[in-house]
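Q: What would this chain look like folded?
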Amino acid sequence: MLKHVVMWRFVEGAEGKSRSEHAQWMKEHLEALVGVVPEIRALEVGIDCNRGAAAYDAVLISLFDDAEALKRYKNHPAHQAISTHCKQVRESRTVVDYEV
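A: My prediction, written as structure tokens:
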């Protein structure tokens, strides 16, 4: 199994929305992929509640059978649409993939 963890920091005011609104949008849209993208074994999105200087705004923790399943998820059109939007409103992104 492969765990895929992504964190985002959003741009305040991008597209007229706050960082919190962007985080909420990501949560809603990523969670909606469950049942749409068959490779997803588990998926959770958390929104930061501390607002510390080093904090990111949102985190995705997802689980896939293997690296090939993760690749298919990343290339799925529903995920691609979310990714395209995210690239327009994020300040930074960090990723860790590890085997469990």
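Strands lie at 2-10, 42-47, 58-64, 90-99.
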